[in-house]
Amino acid sequence: MSGVTFETQRAALADVVAIPVTPFAADGSVDLAAHRALLRRLLDGGIGTLTPNGNTGEFYALTPEERRLVAESTIEEAGDRAAVLVGVGHDLPTAIASARHARDLGAGMVMVHQPVHPYVSAAGWVDYHRAIAEAVPELGVVPYIRNDRLAGARLVELADHCPNVIGVKYAVPDAARFAAFARDAGLDRFVWVAGLAEPYAPSYFSAGATGFTSGLVNVAPAVSLNMIEALRSGDYPGAMKVWEQIRRFEELRAAHGSANNVTVVKEALAALGLCRRDVRPPSRPLPEDERAEVAAIAAGWSI
């Protein structure tokens, strides 16, 4: 596959990378009709990159069959309107099967979730990602890095074996570490996506990121697009105005070790009448007394 340049996929990563929620029906199943409606809302709002089976999509709470359904629903709805980056992970055979399923559906990329194994060696991290990337050489592969001990040299080692490793979703909450990691790995070799969304986007863009992930985008696509437009034009004061606008919402999501990361997004969507607030354990819906604040923020974005 040496002739594949992945230019289209690289461009799609240098953008607002939306992580859609997975809405649930009253009986607890995935609500595919609501899912499609939420995806259409993102597409109509100008979002061009979607990540089904991301953490905001409650990846770890979905069954294998549900993860396949969510990927299928997203790729069908996106059509030629958006690039799709399918989240894969768990044990290696499962991750490889999910990546091949994404390829067979027509996705252009997979995002490899951080391994959840309690014992992750740096060399083993390379082996895990290499096995997945080699199974789908025609797809762009994007490691999701949350490990602050991983060195940039390991990413170089991986990409030297697998030229389809084209971007990185970097989610270590340390802008200086990100700047060093990106330069050790190759600032221009990979597309750097700020994996901690809007709160970290300005600092990570200043260090070389050109895209950021977003869960907030489910609620207010225009707000996320306003931020990336400011960042692309180097208007950091403008980006920080958006940052101030979304600060409280993101603080609520980050509280208690990000316990309510998805909960707050779904609460806002419920307040807007777009889907049920239900999340699956080990997440939990917001207590009644905290719902009004989220509803007020969502209403204030007036979308």
From TrEMBL:
Pfam families: DHDPS (PF00701). Gene3D superfamilies: Aldolase class I. Keywords: Lyase. The keyword Lyase applies. SUPFAM superfamilies: Aldolase. PANTHER family: 5-DEHYDRO-4-DEOXYGLUCARATE DEHYDRATASE 2-RELATED, DIHYDRODIPICOLINATE SYNTHASE. Belongs to the DapA family. This is Dihydrodipicolinate synthase.
